Amino acid sequence: MKRSDAPEPQRRTLLATALTALVLPAHVFGKSDPNNQDMTDMKIRLTFADRSMSASLYDNASARDFFTMLPLNLTIDDFSSNEKIAYLPRKLTTEGHGPFNNERPYDLCYYMPWGNLAMFYADYKHPGLIRLGRVDEGRDALHLAGKFPLRIEPLP
After folding, report:
1. Which of 1, 86, 123, 150 is most solvent-facing, going by the fewest CB within 10 Å?
2. Other CB atoms within 10 Å distance of the CB of residue 149
3. CB burial of residue 4 (10 Å; 0-12, 13-18, 19+)
4. How confident is the model at residue 9, as a pLDDT?
5. Distance between CA 38 and CA 26 in Å, rounded?
6. Are the C-beta atoms of residues 115 and 91 closer than 8 Å to each other?
7. Other CB atoms closer than 10 Å to residue 145's CB: what's the count?
8. Apex CA 111: angle with CA 109 and CA 117, to 5°?
9. Bigger pLDDT: 39 or 110?
10. Average pLDDT over residues 71-87
11. Which residues of 99-138 are buried (b: 16+ CB within 10 A; e: fewer)?
């Protein structure tokens, strides 16, 4: 077959494929929507300064990777005026991450450049974050100023 005889993609086929990619849910094409994630049954407890918080993790590769590391003994410390941070022993997978634009206080995130957890207790917006989950109970603990030993463990 000569090169000129090879069938060329029809313009309609290309247009239909592009429109399908926009209309179908993102998970069909292998990437979830970071603005609309489902919660999982992965629940954790974070304990520091005689206070305890519980959080639910989202259904994404980074949250699952984080959950496999538990239990962890870390240090939690203040950072900026809206968050507490804790450094993980290793970086998490960033597979399937993407920007999100519906940030809310009490999100539990992973900051990719530094490899740390970021627990927000006030409004925030920053590139480089992957949302891991949400603090469900004990949110007031995040407002306690200072540096403390932190225990993170899975809840049954």
Report:
1. 1
2. 11
3. exposed
4. 52
5. 13
6. yes
7. 8
8. 55
9. 110
10. 97
11. ebeeeebbbbbbbbeeebbbbbbeebeeeebbbbbbbeee
Amino acid found at 89 = P
Length of the chain: 156
User: Which residue matches tokens 């990437």?
Assistant: 31
pLDDT digits (tens, 9 = 90+) for 147-156: 999 999 999 9
- What is the model's pTM? 0.76
Residue 102 token pair: 């519906």
Supply the pLDDT for residue 12: 53
Please answer whether residues 96 and 61 qualify as being in contact, where contact means their C-beta atoms are separated by less than 8 angstroms.
Answer: yes
Q: Is the pLDDT of residue 130 over 60?
A: yes
